[in-house]
């Protein structure tokens, strides 16, 4: 299947409430000069990058939740990322996993103050035609650095004074040391204990202390765990957002235009599920 056909198919996927924009290409993204300010480790291989817009007039006032920016490195390599904080005017914050090659490998070598980096205005990854903060319950199913778009939703929904939406994050990682933004997650959990529940799923036990944070140590997320932790299949007021590495997303919900996986097995309707791909 050619890329053009795939793009057309993605654009064509419109169903009740959700509309995927597809990846239309770079030309629609105006790129603006930014300066690299600092890099702070979040885990052993994920860093928090802070960039500032060189021209404040170009800086977005706020960043819509679950939006993406296109980043172009000094060598011209490009990749989409999801800003992790939405309210720091003039700055863009990204969580980037260092794979030691391509965009992340190049960014890992940058010194603070480095120029020649460009970032687009945030554009919504997914156009939604329903308010996202009004559901009864939202399950966020994430793995690794796939937490980035889910965290944006979680933070803004919990902060919303009028929202009563309950959130359950089911978050898969290799071990405790791989949990991205754990401190932020713990703080949100403490502050919004009546609305936020977090279930960690850790594949490998590195330390006995991991049993204190979850009963699922030594597990990959699977449909048995999801069936224990989820209810609300068929209820249009219950939604599920999924983001992570492709094999993980496929296991949970199929992929993009093919809906399948554990959620389908558990009888969640396609219209309940929003997959980031
Ligand atoms: C909308 C969107 C926004 C994104 N934003 C960013 C961003 O801002 N920054 C960034 O760096 N990347 C981003 N990405 C990329 C993407 O999130 C990561 O490339 C992807 O999640 C891989 O993450 P990882 O390498 O940490 O996962 P891995 O370390 O490969 O996997 C994490 C965990 O997933 C579980 N897992 C993996 N495969 C399976 C399986 N088959 N069954 C069950 N469990 C499994 C395991 O527990 C594993 O420990 C984004 C992607 C999308 C679609």
Walkthrough of the structure:
- FAD binds at residues 79, 97, 103-104.
- Its cofactor is FAD.
- Residues 140-253 form the Oxidoreductase FAD/NAD(P)-binding domain.
- GO terms for molecular function: oxidoreductase activity.
- The protein is an alpha/beta fold.
- It contains eight helices and 18 strands.
- The chain folds into two domains: 23-124, Elongation Factor Tu (Ef-tu), domain 3 (Beta Barrel); 126-275, 3-Layer(aba) Sandwich (Rossmann fold).
- Strands 3, 4, 5, 6, 7, 8 and 9 form a seven-stranded antiparallel beta sheet that branches.
- A hairpin with a 2-residue loop joins strand 1 and strand 2.
- The radius of gyration is 19 Å and the shape is globular.
How confident is the prediction overall: mean pLDDT?
87
What is the 3D form?
Answer: globular
Q: Give the name of the CATH architecture of the largest domain.
A: 3-Layer(aba) Sandwich
Q: Report the count of strand segments.
A: 18
